[in-house]
Protein backbone atom coordinates (compact mmCIF):
# COMPACT_ATOMS: atom_id res chain seq x y z
CA UNK A 1 0.00 0.00 0.00
CA UNK A 2 1.29 3.44 -0.91
CA UNK A 3 2.49 5.36 2.19
CA UNK A 4 0.40 8.41 1.23
CA UNK A 5 -2.81 6.52 0.42
CA UNK A 6 -4.60 7.11 3.74
CA UNK A 7 -3.61 10.76 3.93
CA UNK A 8 -4.71 11.48 0.34
CA UNK A 9 -7.98 9.58 0.81
CA UNK A 10 -8.81 11.52 3.98
CA UNK A 11 -8.64 14.78 2.03
CA UNK A 12 -12.31 14.03 1.25
CA UNK A 13 -13.04 14.77 4.93
CA UNK A 14 -10.43 17.50 5.42
CA UNK A 15 -12.74 20.51 5.74
CA UNK A 16 -16.11 19.58 7.29
CA UNK A 17 -18.73 22.19 8.09
CA UNK A 18 -20.18 23.00 11.49
CA UNK A 19 -23.64 21.42 11.67
CA UNK A 20 -26.23 23.18 13.85
CA UNK A 21 -29.89 24.19 14.20
CA UNK A 22 -31.29 27.69 14.27
CA UNK A 23 -31.51 30.13 15.90
CA UNK A 24 -27.78 30.81 16.11
CA UNK A 25 -25.10 33.34 15.29
CA UNK A 26 -21.88 32.62 13.40
CA UNK A 27 -18.85 34.88 13.79
CA UNK A 28 -16.30 34.33 11.04
CA UNK A 29 -12.88 36.01 10.93
CA UNK A 30 -10.06 35.63 8.39
CA UNK A 31 -6.51 36.71 9.23
CA UNK A 32 -3.59 37.02 6.85
CA UNK A 33 -0.62 34.84 7.71
CA UNK A 34 1.75 37.76 8.27
CA UNK A 35 4.19 38.48 11.10
CA UNK A 36 3.45 35.09 12.64
CA UNK A 37 -0.22 35.96 13.25
CA UNK A 38 -1.61 32.48 12.51
CA UNK A 39 0.86 30.69 14.76
CA UNK A 40 0.17 33.16 17.55
CA UNK A 41 -3.61 32.64 17.26
CA UNK A 42 -3.27 28.84 17.27
CA UNK A 43 -0.90 28.93 20.23
CA UNK A 44 -3.34 31.12 22.19
CA UNK A 45 -6.22 28.84 21.18
CA UNK A 46 -4.29 25.84 22.48
CA UNK A 47 -3.84 27.56 25.83
CA UNK A 48 -7.56 28.37 26.13
CA UNK A 49 -8.80 24.93 25.04
CA UNK A 50 -6.13 22.93 26.88
CA UNK A 51 -5.47 21.01 23.65
CA UNK A 52 -2.32 21.95 21.71
CA UNK A 53 -3.19 22.38 18.03
CA UNK A 54 -1.95 19.73 15.61
CA UNK A 55 0.74 21.41 13.49
CA UNK A 56 0.11 18.99 10.64
CA UNK A 57 -3.66 19.51 10.58
CA UNK A 58 -5.36 22.06 8.32
CA UNK A 59 -8.50 22.38 10.42
CA UNK A 60 -9.93 21.46 13.77
CA UNK A 61 -13.27 21.79 15.57
CA UNK A 62 -12.92 22.51 19.30
CA UNK A 63 -15.12 23.19 22.29
CA UNK A 64 -13.80 26.34 23.95
CA UNK A 65 -15.58 27.99 26.88
CA UNK A 66 -18.75 26.05 26.05
CA UNK A 67 -18.79 27.28 22.42
CA UNK A 68 -17.99 25.47 19.17
CA UNK A 69 -15.03 26.96 17.36
CA UNK A 70 -13.49 25.83 14.09
CA UNK A 71 -10.15 26.98 12.72
CA UNK A 72 -8.88 26.38 9.21
CA UNK A 73 -5.40 26.96 7.88
CA UNK A 74 -5.18 28.05 4.24
CA UNK A 75 -2.23 28.89 2.00
CA UNK A 76 -1.93 32.50 3.11
CA UNK A 77 -4.61 33.04 5.74
CA UNK A 78 -6.33 31.49 8.73
CA UNK A 79 -10.07 31.46 9.42
CA UNK A 80 -11.89 31.24 12.74
CA UNK A 81 -15.60 30.37 12.87
CA UNK A 82 -17.41 30.58 16.22
CA UNK A 83 -20.92 29.17 16.63
CA UNK A 84 -23.00 30.90 19.33
CA UNK A 85 -26.49 29.47 20.07
CA UNK A 86 -29.09 32.22 20.35
CA UNK A 87 -32.19 32.45 22.46
CA UNK A 88 -35.32 33.87 20.73
CA UNK A 89 -35.52 36.84 23.07
CA UNK A 90 -31.92 37.95 22.49
CA UNK A 91 -31.07 40.99 20.40
CA UNK A 92 -30.69 40.52 16.67
CA UNK A 93 -26.98 41.24 16.33
CA UNK A 94 -25.20 40.21 19.54
CA UNK A 95 -21.66 41.42 20.14
CA UNK A 96 -18.86 38.90 19.51
CA UNK A 97 -17.90 36.87 22.56
CA UNK A 98 -14.81 37.90 24.49
CA UNK A 99 -13.12 34.73 23.24
CA UNK A 100 -12.82 36.16 19.74
CA UNK A 101 -11.35 39.41 20.98
CA UNK A 102 -8.80 37.42 22.98
CA UNK A 103 -7.76 35.51 19.86
CA UNK A 104 -7.99 38.20 17.21
CA UNK A 105 -7.31 41.39 19.17
CA UNK A 106 -3.48 41.15 19.26
CA UNK A 107 -3.47 40.50 15.48
CA UNK A 108 -6.19 42.95 14.45
CA UNK A 109 -3.93 44.49 11.76
CA UNK A 110 -3.98 41.18 9.85
CA UNK A 111 -7.79 40.90 9.89
CA UNK A 112 -8.90 40.85 6.23
CA UNK A 113 -12.51 39.67 6.63
CA UNK A 114 -15.06 39.73 9.45
CA UNK A 115 -18.56 38.38 8.86
CA UNK A 116 -21.53 37.78 11.16
CA UNK A 117 -24.31 35.44 10.04
CA UNK A 118 -27.58 35.57 11.92
CA UNK A 119 -29.60 32.36 11.40
CA UNK A 120 -33.34 32.65 12.10
CA UNK A 121 -36.30 30.31 11.73
CA UNK A 122 -38.92 31.15 9.14
CA UNK A 123 -41.67 31.41 11.78
CA UNK A 124 -39.60 33.58 14.14
CA UNK A 125 -37.94 36.16 12.02
CA UNK A 126 -39.32 39.72 11.94
CA UNK A 127 -40.56 39.41 8.38
CA UNK A 128 -38.75 42.39 6.88
CA UNK A 129 -34.99 42.86 6.36
CA UNK A 130 -35.32 46.51 7.40
CA UNK A 131 -36.19 45.30 10.92
CA UNK A 132 -32.62 43.99 11.12
CA UNK A 133 -31.03 47.32 10.20
CA UNK A 134 -30.54 46.64 6.49
CA UNK A 135 -30.79 49.54 4.01
CA UNK A 136 -31.53 48.73 0.37
CA UNK A 137 -30.71 45.06 0.95
CA UNK A 138 -30.10 42.33 -1.61
CA UNK A 139 -31.85 39.04 -1.07
CA UNK A 140 -32.22 35.61 -2.65
CA UNK A 141 -33.95 32.34 -2.14
CA UNK A 142 -31.15 29.78 -1.93
CA UNK A 143 -30.96 26.00 -1.77
CA UNK A 144 -33.88 25.60 -4.18
CA UNK A 145 -36.06 27.85 -1.99
CA UNK A 146 -35.29 26.22 1.36
CA UNK A 147 -33.71 29.38 2.78
CA UNK A 148 -33.60 33.15 2.25
CA UNK A 149 -30.46 35.27 2.59
CA UNK A 150 -30.41 39.05 3.08
CA UNK A 151 -27.59 41.58 3.32
CA UNK A 152 -26.85 45.18 2.42
CA UNK A 153 -23.04 44.57 2.41
CA UNK A 154 -22.41 47.63 4.57
CA UNK A 155 -19.78 47.36 7.27
CA UNK A 156 -20.61 48.15 10.86
CA UNK A 157 -18.55 50.59 12.92
CA UNK A 158 -16.38 47.64 13.99
CA UNK A 159 -15.82 46.58 10.36
CA UNK A 160 -18.16 43.56 10.31
CA UNK A 161 -20.33 42.55 7.35
CA UNK A 162 -23.73 41.16 8.33
CA UNK A 163 -25.78 38.41 6.67
CA UNK A 164 -29.27 37.23 7.65
CA UNK A 165 -30.24 33.66 6.79
CA UNK A 166 -33.87 32.66 7.25
CA UNK A 167 -34.18 28.87 7.35
CA UNK A 168 -37.31 27.47 5.74
CA UNK A 169 -36.44 23.81 5.26
CA UNK A 170 -32.75 23.10 5.71
CA UNK A 171 -31.67 20.41 8.15
CA UNK A 172 -28.58 20.81 10.32
CA UNK A 173 -26.33 19.26 7.65
CA UNK A 174 -27.54 21.47 4.79
CA UNK A 175 -27.68 24.52 7.04
CA UNK A 176 -24.01 24.07 7.95
CA UNK A 177 -23.03 23.72 4.30
CA UNK A 178 -25.12 26.74 3.26
CA UNK A 179 -23.56 29.04 5.86
CA UNK A 180 -20.13 27.73 4.89
CA UNK A 181 -20.75 28.74 1.26
CA UNK A 182 -21.81 32.23 2.32
CA UNK A 183 -18.75 32.66 4.53
CA UNK A 184 -16.41 31.38 1.81
CA UNK A 185 -17.89 33.84 -0.67
CA UNK A 186 -17.08 36.72 1.67
CA UNK A 187 -13.62 35.46 2.63
CA UNK A 188 -12.42 34.58 -0.86
CA UNK A 189 -13.94 37.75 -2.29
CA UNK A 190 -11.80 39.81 0.07
CA UNK A 191 -8.69 37.71 -0.58
CA UNK A 192 -9.16 38.10 -4.35
CA UNK A 193 -9.56 41.86 -3.94
CA UNK A 194 -6.12 42.14 -2.32
CA UNK A 195 -4.65 42.47 -5.82
CA UNK A 196 -6.68 45.61 -6.62
CA UNK A 197 -4.36 48.20 -4.97
CA UNK A 198 -1.34 46.50 -6.56
CA UNK A 199 -3.05 46.50 -9.96
CA UNK A 200 -3.78 50.23 -9.73
CA UNK A 201 -0.17 50.92 -8.80
CA UNK A 202 1.09 48.78 -11.68
CA UNK A 203 -1.23 50.54 -14.12
CA UNK A 204 0.66 53.80 -13.61
CA UNK A 205 4.01 52.02 -13.94
CA UNK A 206 2.93 50.23 -17.11
CA UNK A 207 1.91 53.51 -18.74
CA UNK A 208 5.42 54.86 -18.19
CA UNK A 209 6.98 51.59 -19.40
CA UNK A 210 4.83 51.56 -22.55
CA UNK A 211 5.82 55.15 -23.36
CA UNK A 212 9.48 54.27 -22.85
CA UNK A 213 9.12 51.20 -25.05
CA UNK A 214 7.60 53.34 -27.83
CA UNK A 215 10.55 55.74 -27.69
CA UNK A 216 13.04 52.87 -27.82
CA UNK A 217 11.18 51.33 -30.78
CA UNK A 218 11.39 54.63 -32.67
CA UNK A 219 15.10 54.88 -31.96
CA UNK A 220 15.59 51.35 -33.21
CA UNK A 221 13.58 52.04 -36.37
CA UNK A 222 15.60 55.14 -37.24
CA UNK A 223 18.60 54.45 -39.50
CA UNK A 224 21.05 56.68 -37.75
CA UNK A 225 24.73 56.15 -37.13
CA UNK A 226 23.95 55.58 -33.46
CA UNK A 227 25.74 52.70 -31.79
CA UNK A 228 23.60 49.76 -30.69
CA UNK A 229 25.23 49.58 -27.28
CA UNK A 230 23.35 52.51 -25.58
CA UNK A 231 20.04 51.28 -27.01
CA UNK A 232 20.73 47.73 -25.84
CA UNK A 233 21.53 49.05 -22.37
CA UNK A 234 18.26 51.00 -22.19
CA UNK A 235 16.22 47.99 -23.33
CA UNK A 236 17.98 45.69 -20.85
CA UNK A 237 17.23 48.13 -18.03
CA UNK A 238 13.55 48.30 -19.01
CA UNK A 239 13.38 44.51 -19.22
CA UNK A 240 14.90 44.22 -15.73
CA UNK A 241 12.30 46.62 -14.28
CA UNK A 242 9.47 44.67 -15.91
CA UNK A 243 10.85 41.40 -14.58
CA UNK A 244 11.07 42.87 -11.08
CA UNK A 245 7.47 44.12 -11.14
CA UNK A 246 6.34 40.80 -12.63
CA UNK A 247 8.00 38.85 -9.84
CA UNK A 248 6.33 41.15 -7.31
CA UNK A 249 2.81 40.76 -8.74
CA UNK A 250 2.74 37.32 -10.36
CA UNK A 251 1.87 35.45 -7.16
CA UNK A 252 -0.79 37.98 -6.16
CA UNK A 253 -2.54 37.90 -9.55
CA UNK A 254 -2.43 34.08 -9.65
CA UNK A 255 -4.03 33.98 -6.20
CA UNK A 256 -6.73 36.42 -7.34
CA UNK A 257 -7.59 34.17 -10.27
CA UNK A 258 -7.83 31.11 -8.01
CA UNK A 259 -9.89 32.87 -5.32
CA UNK A 260 -12.28 34.41 -7.85
CA UNK A 261 -13.01 31.00 -9.33
CA UNK A 262 -13.98 29.75 -5.88
CA UNK A 263 -16.28 32.76 -5.42
CA UNK A 264 -17.98 32.17 -8.78
CA UNK A 265 -18.39 28.46 -8.00
CA UNK A 266 -19.86 29.09 -4.54
CA UNK A 267 -22.36 31.60 -5.94
CA UNK A 268 -23.51 29.02 -8.48
CA UNK A 269 -23.89 26.46 -5.69
CA UNK A 270 -26.34 28.77 -3.88
CA UNK A 271 -28.96 28.04 -6.59
CA UNK A 272 -30.54 31.46 -6.22
CA UNK A 273 -33.95 32.72 -7.19
CA UNK A 274 -35.35 36.25 -6.97
CA UNK A 275 -37.38 37.66 -4.08
CA UNK A 276 -39.73 40.39 -5.23
CA UNK A 277 -37.95 43.42 -6.66
CA UNK A 278 -34.77 43.06 -4.61
CA UNK A 279 -31.55 42.30 -6.50
CA UNK A 280 -30.27 38.82 -5.99
CA UNK A 281 -27.36 38.37 -3.60
CA UNK A 282 -25.07 36.74 -6.16
CA UNK A 283 -25.96 39.28 -8.84
CA UNK A 284 -25.12 42.15 -6.48
CA UNK A 285 -21.73 40.61 -5.66
CA UNK A 286 -20.81 39.67 -9.22
CA UNK A 287 -21.81 43.05 -10.63
CA UNK A 288 -19.20 44.72 -8.44
CA UNK A 289 -16.68 41.94 -7.90
CA UNK A 290 -16.26 40.75 -11.48
CA UNK A 291 -14.90 44.13 -12.75
CA UNK A 292 -12.22 43.92 -10.04
CA UNK A 293 -11.19 40.48 -11.23
CA UNK A 294 -11.23 41.55 -14.89
CA UNK A 295 -9.17 44.67 -14.11
CA UNK A 296 -6.51 42.64 -12.28
CA UNK A 297 -6.47 40.09 -15.09
CA UNK A 298 -6.11 42.81 -17.74
CA UNK A 299 -3.18 44.38 -15.85
CA UNK A 300 -1.55 40.96 -15.56
CA UNK A 301 -1.96 40.26 -19.30
CA UNK A 302 -0.85 43.79 -20.15
CA UNK A 303 2.26 43.26 -18.06
CA UNK A 304 3.01 39.98 -19.84
CA UNK A 305 2.43 41.48 -23.30
CA UNK A 306 4.72 44.40 -22.50
CA UNK A 307 7.46 42.05 -21.33
CA UNK A 308 7.11 40.03 -24.55
CA UNK A 309 7.28 43.23 -26.65
CA UNK A 310 10.46 44.30 -24.88
CA UNK A 311 11.93 40.85 -25.46
CA UNK A 312 11.09 41.03 -29.17
CA UNK A 313 12.64 44.50 -29.48
CA UNK A 314 15.70 43.21 -27.67
CA UNK A 315 15.95 40.31 -30.13
CA UNK A 316 15.58 42.66 -33.11
CA UNK A 317 18.28 44.97 -31.81
CA UNK A 318 20.61 42.09 -31.07
CA UNK A 319 20.03 40.78 -34.60
CA UNK A 320 20.82 44.22 -35.97
CA UNK A 321 23.99 44.39 -33.87
CA UNK A 322 24.96 40.90 -35.00
CA UNK A 323 24.55 41.89 -38.65
CA UNK A 324 26.70 44.96 -38.05
CA UNK A 325 29.36 42.79 -36.42
CA UNK A 326 29.26 40.37 -39.33
CA UNK A 327 29.68 43.24 -41.79
CA UNK A 328 32.66 44.51 -39.82
CA UNK A 329 34.13 41.03 -39.78
CA UNK A 330 33.65 40.75 -43.54
CA UNK A 331 35.45 44.06 -44.05
CA UNK A 332 38.28 42.91 -41.80
CA UNK A 333 38.58 39.64 -43.71
CA UNK A 334 38.67 41.50 -47.01
CA UNK A 335 41.41 43.76 -45.65
CA UNK A 336 43.34 40.73 -44.44
CA UNK A 337 42.99 39.12 -47.87
CA UNK A 338 44.41 42.23 -49.52
CA UNK A 339 47.31 42.29 -47.09
CA UNK A 340 47.96 38.60 -47.63
CA UNK A 341 47.91 39.08 -51.42
CA UNK A 342 50.39 41.96 -51.12
CA UNK A 343 52.62 39.91 -48.87
CA UNK A 344 52.58 37.03 -51.36
CA UNK A 345 53.57 39.36 -54.18
CA UNK A 346 56.37 40.83 -52.09
CA UNK A 347 57.46 37.34 -51.09
CA UNK A 348 57.58 36.19 -54.71
CA UNK A 349 59.62 39.25 -55.63
CA UNK A 350 62.03 38.55 -52.77
CA UNK A 351 62.32 34.93 -53.86
CA UNK A 352 63.14 35.96 -57.42
CA UNK A 353 65.72 38.47 -56.21
CA UNK A 354 67.19 35.88 -53.88
CA UNK A 355 67.67 33.41 -56.75
CA UNK A 356 69.24 36.11 -58.91
CA UNK A 357 71.62 37.11 -56.13
CA UNK A 358 72.53 33.50 -55.41
CA UNK A 359 73.07 32.85 -59.11
CA UNK A 360 75.31 35.94 -59.36
CA UNK A 361 77.44 34.87 -56.40
CA UNK A 362 77.57 31.27 -57.66
CA UNK A 363 78.82 32.22 -61.10
CA UNK A 364 81.24 34.65 -59.50
CA UNK A 365 82.66 31.78 -57.46
CA UNK A 366 83.00 29.67 -60.61
CA UNK A 367 84.76 32.51 -62.35
CA UNK A 368 87.19 32.93 -59.45
CA UNK A 369 87.88 29.20 -59.49
CA UNK A 370 88.63 29.15 -63.18
CA UNK A 371 90.92 32.16 -62.82
CA UNK A 372 92.75 30.40 -59.98
CA UNK A 373 93.30 27.28 -62.11
CA UNK A 374 94.60 29.41 -64.98
CA UNK A 375 97.07 31.07 -62.57
CA UNK A 376 98.32 27.63 -61.57
CA UNK A 377 99.04 26.79 -65.21
CA UNK A 378 95.98 24.69 -65.87
CA UNK A 379 94.58 25.78 -69.18
CA UNK A 380 90.83 25.29 -69.58
CA UNK A 381 89.03 25.91 -72.80
CA UNK A 382 86.10 28.34 -72.21
CA UNK A 383 83.66 26.24 -74.20
CA UNK A 384 84.48 23.16 -72.11
CA UNK A 385 84.19 25.11 -68.85
CA UNK A 386 80.83 26.50 -69.92
CA UNK A 387 79.62 23.03 -70.91
CA UNK A 388 80.58 21.62 -67.52
CA UNK A 389 79.77 24.47 -65.17
CA UNK A 390 76.53 25.73 -66.73
CA UNK A 391 74.50 22.54 -66.01
CA UNK A 392 76.06 22.34 -62.55
CA UNK A 393 75.10 25.93 -61.79
CA UNK A 394 71.60 25.50 -63.13
CA UNK A 395 71.20 22.34 -61.03
CA UNK A 396 72.31 24.12 -57.88
CA UNK A 397 69.91 26.99 -58.57
CA UNK A 398 67.07 24.51 -59.25
CA UNK A 399 67.76 22.72 -55.93
CA UNK A 400 67.63 26.06 -54.10
CA UNK A 401 64.34 27.01 -55.76
CA UNK A 402 62.85 23.60 -54.87
CA UNK A 403 63.88 23.99 -51.22
CA UNK A 404 62.30 27.45 -51.06
CA UNK A 405 58.99 26.12 -52.44
CA UNK A 406 59.02 23.21 -49.97
CA UNK A 407 59.56 25.56 -47.01
CA UNK A 408 56.64 27.69 -48.22
CA UNK A 409 54.32 24.70 -48.36
CA UNK A 410 55.17 23.71 -44.77
From TrEMBL:
Source organism of this protein record: Halomonas alimentaria
Membrane-crossing residue ranges in chain numbering: 349-370, 376-402
Keyword annotations of the record: Coiled coil, Membrane, Transmembrane, Transmembrane helix
Coiled coil: 199-226
A Pfam family the protein falls into: DUF3422
InterPro entries xrefs: DUF3422 (IPR021830)
Annotated protein name in UniProt: DUF3422 family protein
Source organism, top-level taxon: Bacteria
Amino acid sequence: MHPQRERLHNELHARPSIYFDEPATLHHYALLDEAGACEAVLARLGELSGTPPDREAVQQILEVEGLTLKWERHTEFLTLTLLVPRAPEEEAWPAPPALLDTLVGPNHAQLISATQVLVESAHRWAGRPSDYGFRDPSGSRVGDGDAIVWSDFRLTDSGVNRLLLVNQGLDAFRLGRMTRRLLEIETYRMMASLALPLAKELERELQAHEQELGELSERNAEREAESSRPLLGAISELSARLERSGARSRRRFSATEAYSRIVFTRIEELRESRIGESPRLGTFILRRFRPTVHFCDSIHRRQQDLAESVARLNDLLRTRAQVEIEEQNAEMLASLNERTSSQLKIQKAVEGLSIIVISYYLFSLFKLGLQSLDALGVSIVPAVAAAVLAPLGLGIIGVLAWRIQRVKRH
